[in-house]
Amino acid sequence: MATLEQRVKFAEKHVTEKSGKSWTTKGRPWVLDEFWRPATGFKLWPRESTLLCQRCSDLVGDIVEYQDDGIKCRRNAMQHGKCKGLKAEPIIMTVLCLPRRSGKTFNTASWVLSQLYQEKYKRIAFVASSEDQMLSLFRENYGEVIKRNKALSRASDVRESQGIIRVPSKRSMFEGLSTSHGSVTGRGRTTVIMDECRDLHPRVAMSLIPSIFESHGWECPNGHLHASAGEEVPKNCPACSTKLRQWFGRILLMSSAGILDGSERDWFSELVSYLQANPSPNVHLFQASHRVNPDISSEITNTVEDVFGSLESTKSYVSVEIENRFTRKGENLLTKGEIDACVDNGLKNRIESDKQCVAFLDTSKTKDKTSLVILSYDEERSIDPWSQVVIERVDVWEPQKLPGGVINPKDILEHLDLYIPLFPNLKALRVDTRVMPWAIALVKQIKKSRPWGRIVDGYHGKRAERKASWQLLHQRMLTRTIRIPPHKELRAELLSVRRVEDLDGNLDVRDANRGKRHIDIADALAVCCYLAHLESITQRRSLTSVSGFQAHTLLQKLYRPTTSKIDLDKF
Ligand SMILES: [Zn+2]
Ligand SMILES: [Zn+2]
What we know:
By secondary structure, this protein is of the alpha/beta class. The chain is built from 17 helices and 23 strands. Helix content is 32%, strand content 19%.
């Protein structure tokens, strides 16, 4: 096992570009932070998300090199009890959505070579969509790189016409495969890399992933022992007595954006949206726009963007090629039928409720509405916590209808004082503190002087949270796992929401009436769905404690597309 540092040093020393320039990550911090480190790393994740101190909570999602790098902690948790600290979860899948010409192929090759020549028993498969593409890519990024370096050439056996590299002293092997290749499937691989996923058929992609299911086991950090699943292993290496480390098969999925055509070929974009909305301890997702390659001239791209981005016929291609954005024409997020299917005419604003719930207060001053939405776990419909939700209350304050045309924070506090104690199982009330100074003051006052202040906090979600929130609401509406009251304004708002693909290829929303934003209540509802999701994460299970069959079912869960286009059971 080589350390990340050793692998970087190796690539800097041995891997060169055609011009003779040595490989470097200078100017491209993403190569290490978003690719090399996660691709073989572990993600810090709460042992119990409710028992977390502030310090540990700040570290959630950070990537560490080894499984032993988890954090033991006994500090006081933010809620009651002692912090349980963080475990280091293996990152099984790294998903990179990068623009073209980001250097991903060359950086992938450097990453592959740095393992192949330094680590034992690596079986790395690289899949491209066509044989020709694979072979030319292999020649340029692997074959030629090895030829330019004496040490590499001596240590390996390269079959350029087959796309194969063998490093006998390490018993490691690299195979370049194409989807037309008969032996794309196969077992015992330690790493599967899929390049340009937007061109790969989902059936092929899904049939490759199981080839790592059996890939896990234990190994000596000094390279003496390497055991696969099912083999009996000692605690320490028999040769050097070092404690063995668990290893996992890994998947790397890469693509630039493409044109979406509504077919199952959109799977990669769907995967990216899904992961964005459902962060997983076992998946690392990185999406970049066009600024990851310092060698690309922004003057040139800006010009192309300006000119061709203005033409109706070339507009969508520009967003694909330059902005790395999956593109589809603007359309309504939800149809009338889809909304009506979730409306329950029997629902009214509840005065009180002892159900588990979450709430969001969207704040405004003079133009937009201020709204409060309380969403609860719908115990009548499901025993699986938070799988079904129902709106308990919707309250709206319209500044135009208020004295002076301004929201009065005192009214809001009075309202909260009346209702919040009547919802004793409210888990979280978040107040939008991003813009309104009165909202910040309100949260401070509540936290200081109200007995229910401990569940209240400011909310400073950014674009990513907003997108995730809408993705969750959207999913709930489509799967009818939410019940909403026959609230006229809310219904009208939901109807007016347009779906767009954002810069990174995710679902994003905007109002049909641009400039005049009026999806306030729906926005608050979307954030509630996000808060409900955070509540439900508590039950998430860990991949570290399971293996084999269980890992398979877990991976299925973790990669569950938003629609049922891809069925993981069908290979
Ligand atoms: Zn802690
Ligand atoms: Zn050893």
